[in-house]
Amino acid sequence: ATSSMRPGPTFKLVLLGDGRVGKTSMVLRYVNNIFSDKQTATIQASYLTKRVNVDGLTVTLAIWDTAGQERFHALGPIYYRDADAAVLVYDLMDKDSFARVKSWVKELRKMANKNIVLTIAGNKCDMDRHRTVDLQDSERYAESIGAHHFLTSAKSNTGIEEAFLDVAKRVLEVR
Ligand code: GDP
Ligand code: MG
Question: Under a CB-based contact definition with an 8 Å cutoff, are residues 123 and 159 in contact?
Answer without folding.
Answer: no
